[in-house]
Amino acid sequence: xxxxxxxxxxxxxxxxxxxxxxxxxxxxxxxxxxxxxxxxxxxxxxxxxxxxxxxxxxxxxxxxxxxxxxxxxxxxxxxxxxxxxxxxxxxxxxxxxxxxxxxxxxxxxxxxxxxxxxxxxxxxxxxxxxxxxxxxxxxxxxxxxxxxxxxxxxxxxxxxxxxxxxxxxxxxxxxxxxxxxxxxxxxxxxxxxxxxxxxxxxxxxxxxxxxxxxxxxxxxxxxxxxxxxxxxxxxxxxxxxxxxxxxxxxxxxxxxxxxxxxxxxxxxxxxxxxxxxxxxxxxxxxxxxxxxxxxxxxxxxxxxxxxxxxxxxxxxxxxxxxxxxxxxxxxxxxxxxxxxxxxxxxxxxxxxxxxxxxxxxxxxxxxxxxxxxxxxxxxxxxxxxxxxxxxxxxxxxxxxxxxxxxxxxxxxxxxxxxxxxxxxxxxxxxxxxxxxxxxxxxxxxxxxxxxxxxxxxxxxxxxxxxxxxxxxxxxxxxxxxxxxxxxxxxxxxxxxxxxxxxxxxxxxxxxxxxxxxxxxxxxxxxxxxxxxxxxxxxxxxxxxxxxxxxxxxxxxxxxxxxxxxxxxxxxxxxxxxxxxxxxxxxxxxxxxxxxxxxxxxxxxxxxxxxxxxxxxxxxxxx
Length: 622
Description:
Blueprint: H1 10-21, H2 25-38, E1 43-49, E2 55-60, H3 67-72, H4 100-106, E3 109-115, E4 122-128, E5 131-138, E6 143-149, H5 156-160, H6 165-182, E7 187-192, E8 195-200, H7 205-213, E9 221-227, E10 232-238, E11 250-254, E12 257-259, H8 262-271, E13 284-289, E14 295-296, E15 307-308, H9 311-328, H10 384-387, H11 391-397, H12 413-416, E16 439-441, E17 445-450, E18 453-458, H13 459-477, E19 482-492, H14 495-503, H15 505-511, E20 514-517, E21 522-529, H16 537-554, H17 559-573, H18 581-592, E22 607-611, H19 612-620
Parallel strand pairs: 1-7, 11-13
Antiparallel strand pairs: 1-2, 2-6, 3-4, 3-6, 4-5, 7-8, 9-10, 10-13, 11-12, 14-15, 16-17, 17-18, 18-22, 19-21, 20-21
Helix pairs in contact: 1-4, 2-6, 6-7, 6-14, 8-9, 13-15, 13-17, 13-18, 16-17
């Protein structure tokens, strides 16, 4: 029998390794930025074209490489970081496996120019598909410039799996922001398609956070610090009232390396317990420093997942540090950015308006729903029979009393498939000229008398269903009307949010929003949907973007569906108010005119029916 086992060719082995290390353009950005940091660079420039598909270039002023090192860095398992087994447990640098450059060169065309400090000339390398095409001396500044062109040019199946430029650029921004936050003492700049996105001077952490996330973060940061013999915690946490529906602005760094840890996030969230609105997530940038032998960072190829030797102690210290910051310091509305707030002591808590802003028991009652994202059935899809339900069947169930006798009518067989309402239900009396009308309870629920008993309508859920169907239609037909703002609003967004808004500009316009690009990450909002109350327009747009991102993180939806859901959710959360008889009746009318009136898009019930028998039993028990 002939031998069938053989060694893979180097180019193929490198492509297989690249499948773990290089998943998308952002993976290349991460590896190259980390290499520049390890090269002791103080100024790093990232140049991207077509979201990294066409070009990713990193230019740094680090120590550079010799001719031999430049050639060796593209070999598999070649590294300057590890010599012995013990070194694996003392790693404080970023890239250390020696796979990144070989993996990148296997799936792209790479040009490297590098010169060590004091050398007269540098070296230039051209590599395509792991093969060295050119190596020659070159005049180049001290440091290293690496240009990665035409990513996955030789693996078309991988290239076809890349997302749109807007999606891939958001991933690139994520990696850039993480490294830039971890090293505020290093200057960073980012250019996309020759447009400057970031230009961050070397500074302190507080100013770096504002430079990346936006000036509105000045109002919500409080310093957090805890030093122990086991580990140190430092960084910033946000005011509870600034919490958002998405988890985007949450960063953990362990020994200056960005990590993802649900365990550590739970430590922070429990520290905020009782202070956050429902389904909200606080902002934080927290650095944990401990001896490298007490962690294992070699868990996953991306090195964003780690294991702690003593997880319980790490959890307890992080939780205590955040709780201490919340309980001891006043989370002031603004910070003094002229001073070094990294070390400036904050003031003790003061009572504002007679209540402690950190004690939920002492807050004045708002009397309204928190408007949280309540989706007990994520990704809910109604039965086919429900989707086919006609408004005629609902009109038969719910028909305003326009004549003295109440006409009993049967629901259509299509609507009876909804299973929630029996075909014998009929509204007893409501509407114009009625004696009995809908009753509003606590500005949250509507009670409506029906023939078999009582119908209870969730006011917010009903609004969400109505608005969703309305905006979904507007997006499909591009018929959304707009009302011009008397005073246009200038809105500064984070870089990632600005890209998202511009990506969805056609969809925003279809719903009735009108805005123009003001340069950088700033837009001018000129109009909003015609039926939206003109107040807090800036807040509405920001909430809409947050809800869209939150939906994207938990559900697989197309742009139209996501935006319609996001708009409905946010506007409905603002709709809890006292309603007139006409408004209550109109709400119920509109609800039963919907295609699927008994559920929100997320699967929450909009109404329930209590039969007379059920009501009767309530008074018989006990």
